[in-house]
Amino acid sequence: MKRAGKAICLCLCALLASEVAVSLAEAQSTGQSSPSASPAEIVVAQDNRRVRNFFRRLFRPREIQRESAPILERLQPRERTVRPQRRGRSAAPRPQAIAAVEKAEDAKRVLVVGDFLATALAKGLSAAYRENPNALVIDATSGSSGLVRNDYYDWPAKLPGIVEEQNPDAILVLVGGNDRQGIDTPTGPYALGTDGWRTAYAGRVNALVDAIGATAKPALWVGLVPVQSSTMSRDYSTFNGIVREQIEAKGLPFIETWNGFANAEGKYVSVGPDYRGQSVQLRASDGLNFTRAGQRKLAFFVEQRLDEIFGGIAPQLAAADAAALEPGEEGPQIGPMVPLDALAAAGGDSLATGATQEPEEGEGLGAADAIAKRLAGEEAPPAGRIDFYKWPPPVTVPTPQPAAATTAPAQATTTSASPAAQ
Description:
With 422 residues, the chain is of the alpha/beta class. It has a domain at 108-310: Rossmann fold (3-Layer(aba) Sandwich). Helix content is 38%, strand content 8%. The chain has helices spanning 2-33, 39-48, 54-59, 61-68, 71-75, 116-128, 155-166, 195-215, 230-249, 292-310, 341-345, 367-376, and strands at 108-114, 135-139, 170-174, 183-185, 188-190, 219-222, 254-255, 271-273, 279-281. A 5-stranded parallel beta sheet has the order 2-1-3-6-7, sandwiched between helices. Strands 4-5 form a two-stranded antiparallel ribbon. β1 (108-114), α6 (116-128) and β2 form a beta-alpha-beta unit. The longest helix has 32 residues, at 2-33.
């Protein structure tokens, strides 16, 4: 290695000496061609001359090539290559906004009160009744309100004035989203989750129920839904239990919405079926609020109950005008909408295409009876379904499993009967 280094150094020194010799020779030739030039002029000429020494050639080859290129070639503009533009995917047409129809003078007025969750309910109902002239939604919610901080907004005290001003035909209540905090009472403050807090909160619920009852207006209390935070979801479930126990004792219906925004285990989901069965985004990215589809689904749980209160405000299929029919032509027979599970509730294990058996005397008509009872409200939906509102829910007692046999079962033997027995 030392020998190779010495050899490289000797080569570099030799090249440097040859370069210096060439430069001196060029300087001498320049001085001889102009003998009248002074030594100072010769020095200036040598300084202005760009000496291409060994190091410039060795370490800056690009600059040398650039200097050697013709001037005209460098002055020519470069041709720009035009890249072909990519064609973007054609965007799907946006759904056109449905123009809201003018409401009738005798339209049913639905008053929505509560916190920010009630605001989502009011928006969903407004979208549901957008084309219905017979229903008008009045949003009287206060996003930061609740039942705990009555010093900020006292719903039992505010509600009578709101009802007197708006004169609604029905009242919807959804509140509790902001109530995860300590509560102050005349006997002192209570922390969230304590027995004192539960008792005080039940008293606040009763006060609002009494205020609603004093208005003599039909009302519905909508339950809370699960959220992304498991701790908040547990508290919301506790609030639902307290509210349901208090209001149903006074005859105020409670609308369960929890399962509509939860999975099979009752936990929060952000994506799920909308009111038409299509899988969509129901909850916002914060895990608390609703998307437009979620607002519409939340309102779906209330629509049917409002329709029962008002005696039918949902748009119905209109039968054909008798005057527009041809002679001898009958109009379409449009019956009431029947839930798909009405036939399943009738029981039976035979296929629809199988041979039917006439019912014996004293037996019901099977599916026809089930449909009639369901429409008349005489038969409740199957237990465990979202529209099953019976409280308390039925307790399922697990069937005890038989104990495992400790000995092997005896092998069955076949014996013939004795002649005497015959």
